[in-house]
Design a protein that fits this description.
The complex is a heterodimer of chains A (500) and B (291). Chain A is of the alpha/beta class and 500 residues long. Chain A has 14 helices and 19 strands. Chain B is globular and about 60 Å long. In chain B, helix 7 packs across helix 9. The chains are: A alpha/beta (500), B alpha/beta (291).
Chain lengths: 500, 291
């Protein structure tokens, strides 16, 4: 370790010097780029096409026809017609289809991961090792509960049909889709996905897999749309009877982390940096607001600077890279603007030189903005890029008060502390849908005061979810998965074992 | 000394992340070559003979005849009985003579005996001493005694470098590994080493990471650089590269040097040389050539 933190682009050796070429081959494109409506491939209603750019190289990889309103209306009519037919499909048939889709995902994981990384900038180490296994797991999980779901909530109690907007900023279009597709298919609810064309390639490949399976695939529509057209077209769907599913519960404006004096600094730094580089949940943007207890501020900042200075930035298709480019220039421009405004407003900003060649327009250098105040604009707005905004506090009450003073809507929140009892007590006072408590013990536990939404989790997304003491979903890292709607007594056993 | 509790989740996450690294092409050749320069070429068998040690030393001096410009291993590591021979054989070269001492591998001898052994091997020409920590005292809670003994060996070793072997396989928990690392560092160790190689598990990425974190904490606290030596079970190029990545990403490029990083291994050198030969041949468009 040497003096860390400051920009020192001339001193850094490029990532290729040490790691070399860990890059996977560019993936084959989906055979079909058309809208997939009600289980059938159709032509786009207009002639407009969107050039899908590979952000790391800025080259065009495909031209995707984008759908217009006639396509969307046709989709709605199709799915509403399907809605009545899907009631005749038994839960076991739906389960078989989901299981088969899970197998198809496994078999095509490499291509799906490469397509997603290539077009969204999400590092392939994440897509291949975290996202794709999670997706397959989710499909199988919902396959296993299709029958109990049907018995607990028979057809008719679910929405008749739904619409989901998948923007490119999600960086995880596949997971965004599966988050809704898996439970929807388990329940027999038709869904229309309006996917930003820039993010459409992996989702269109998914559509091919669904088409190959057939059966319940008829209740899925995947429609590439122009950027920023999603809401207008979703309104069209809603007016015709397909309700807009709310954005993923984790999507929010800021993603705060609370660092307490008694936390494991090494793990907290690593977790915070990973949080800043990758979303916890689909729909979240990059970046994190870090509230640090004053007693550990110096040590934390020093350690954070070291870690940020060692960021491996580069081609998202390189398995060694941990931070890829922004998916679009607009995303990156917005990020750089926010950083510049914060600096102009007096917040000290440190940029960390990256290993990526400086010629790539889509690559953002990680940034640390410290210290900031909760009344400053940067403390209240989503960052949309690899940046950390640091605010200090003296006591837990002051932490909560400063968090509240930002007046921001909260995305996934993490609490880093070594005391098992502190985290749940704080979590109940934070208005965030998802709260992850990272304690010094072996288990990482998340608490939410909202509706149970994720019955599955991974090492990146552990979940102990409480829904008014009624609906519970629990997963302990690496140990066991418990289906949703587990009995309250099971939750109490686990809580007791944790000593929470 | 503040007790630290290690979060196994975080350790395992980092190890999982490290295992995903892939180094290819010319960077792989450079990494393998770097790994060779970090090897402590070791023979620690009851059946060791002067001829075996002679061959070991020759191997260190001439690691490969078919691949030019390969670096030499950092050191040879032998039993006390062979230090003099090795020192004479390697005189004038840049290969160090390391010696396991203090009643290796158990360490369960009287302190005076262990110190006498250290003094004797230093006199015979050992550049480096690999001592075993008193695990009995540690596991019975007598950490003060552990530290005192290390200090005594430090003094007896004079100017020779001191590596303290924690024998992490016997310590069982990451908390113990961290605590033992801190005791050894505080007592003056130049290096901390994972294992004797005589029991399983020997070195693992997880325990090595715990030790690296202790080294980093010391550096941040005092500016003092302590070395790391994972030993045992590191046999392939991929293994070596995982450790290179782990050290680089925990401590930085400064630690990728034989003064601060060693790999204790017996068969690793052969495998590294063979792989470099193969990569070189491939680069030249030739067939599969092994030494």
């Amino acid at each position: 370790m040497s003096d860390a933190g400051q920009t020192r682009s001339n001193e850094r050796r490029p990532i290729a010097h040490f790691y070399g070429e860990g890059t996977v081959s560019a993936p084959a494109l989906p055979a079909r780029l058309n809208p997939f409506i009600g289980g059938e491939w159709t032509d786009a209603s207009g002639s407009a096409r969107v050039e899908v750019i590979e952000p790391f190289t800025a080259r065009t990889v495909a031209a995707v026809p984008i759908a217009g309103e006639p396509n969307v209306r046709a989709a709605v009519e199709s799915v509403l017609a399907q809605a009545s037919r899907s009631a005749t499909i038994s839960p076991s048939e739906r389960a078989i289809a989901l299981e088969r889709l899970g197998g198809a995902i496994d078999a095509n994981a490499d291509q799906l991961a490469a397509l997603e990384s290539q077009t969204t900038g999400r590092p392939i180490a994440r897509t291949i090792h975290d996202d794709l296994p999670l997706i397959a797991q989710a499909l199988r999980h919902f396959a296993s509960i299709a029958d109990p779901l049907h018995r607990l909530h028979p057809q008719g109690s679910w929405p008749r049909a739904g619409t989901v907007i998948v923007p490119v900023t999600t960086r995880q279009p596949l997971l965004s889709c599966i988050d809704v597709l898996a439970p929807a298919c388990a329940c027999g609810t038709p869904v229309i996905f309006l996917v930003d064309a820039q993010a459409a390639l992996p989702v269109l490949r998914l559509a091919e897999l669904i088409s190959d399976i057939g059966g319940s695939g008829s209740i899925v529509s995947i429609i590439p749309v122009a950027a920023n057209e999603g809401m207008n077209l979703a309104a069209t769907c809603a007016s015709a009877g397909a309700m807009l599913f709310p954005p993923p519960a984790g999507a929010g404006v800021i993603r705060p982390a609370l660092i307490f004096l008694d936390c494991d600094i090494d793990q907290a730094v690593e977790g915070i940096v990973q949080q800043a580089f990758t979303p916890n949940l689909p729909g979240e943007e990059l970046g994190s607001h870090v509230f640090v207890e004053e007693g550990v501020e110096r040590e934390f900042i020093d350690r954070l600077r070291e870690r940020l200075a060692a960021t491996r930035v580069g081609n998202p298709l390189d398995v060694n890279v941990e931070l890829g480019p922004a998916p679009t220039k607009e995303c990156l421009g917005g990020f750089e603007q926010r950083i510049a405004r914060a600096e102009a407003a007096g917040t000290p900003v440190t940029r960390f030189a990256t290993d990526a060649p400086q010629t790539h327009d889509f690559v953002a250098a990680p940034a640390l903005l410290a210290p900031a105040r909760p009344d400053q604009l940067i403390a209240r707005q989503s960052l949309g890029g690899p940046a950390l905004v640091l605010i200090t506090f003296r006591t837990p009450d002051e932490a909560l008060s400063k968090l509240k003073a930002t007046s921001a809507a909260l995305g996934a929140t993490t609490i880093w502390t070594g005391k098992a009892g502190k985290a749940p007590a704080l979590a109940r006072r934070i208005s965030s849908r998802f709260i992850y408590c990272n304690m010094r013990d072996r288990l990482t536990v998340g608490l939410t005061t909202g509706v149970a939404a994720l019955p599955f989790a991974s090492a990146n997304r552990p979940a102990l979810l409480i829904d008014n003491d009624a609906t519970i979903s629990v997963e302990v890292i690496g140990s066991e998965i418990i289906a949703p709607f587990a009995p309250l007594s099971r939750y109490r056993q686990i809580v007791q074992a944790l000593g929470v | 000394m503040r007790r630290r509790r290690i979060n196994a989740t975080g350790i395992h996450e980092k190890v999982r992340d490290i295992e995903r690294r892939r180094i290819g092409g010319s960077a792989r050749e450079r990494a393998l070559s770097l790994a060779i320069s970090l090897v402590d070429l070791t023979t620690l068998e009851g059946a060791d003979t002067p001829a075996r040690v002679r061959d070991l030393c020759n191997r260190a001096l001439y690691p490969a005849s078919t691949v030019p410009n390969l670096p030499r291993p950092a050191a040879v590591c032998v039993y006390p009985a062979f230090v003099k021979q090795a020192a004479e054989h390697l005189a004038g070269s840049d290969v160090m003579v390391a010696c396991v001492a203090t009643a290796f591998p158990s360490g369960q001898y009287h302190l005076s005996t262990r110190l006498a052994e250290v003094e004797a091997v230093v006199k015979d020409g050992a550049d480096e001493i690999d001592m075993v920590m008193n695990r009995g005292a540690f596991l019975s809670g007598d950490c003060d005694r552990v530290g005192e003994e290390i200090r005594a060996v430090r003094k007896a070793a004079g100017t020779a470098h001191l590596k303290v072997i924690l024998e992490t396989g016997e310590l069982e928990t990451y908390d113990n590994v961290r605590r033992a690392s801190e005791i050894a560092i505080d007592a003056g160790a130049d290096f901390i080493k994972t294992s004797t190689g005589k029991i399983k598990p020997a070195a693992t990425l997880a325990v090595t990471l715990v030790m690296l974190q202790a080294i980093r904490a010391e550096f941040l606290r005092s500016g003092r650089r302590v070395g790391i030596k994972p030993a045992g079970g590191i046999a392939t190029g991929d293994d070596a590269i995982s450790y290179l990545c782990l050290v680089r990403e925990t401590l930085g490029d400064d630690w990728l040097d034989k003064t601060l990083f060693r790999i204790g291994a017996s068969s690793l050198l052969d495998n590294l040389v063979a792989e470099i030969a193969y990569l070189s041949a491939q680069a030249r468009g030739e067939g599969n050539e092994h030494e």
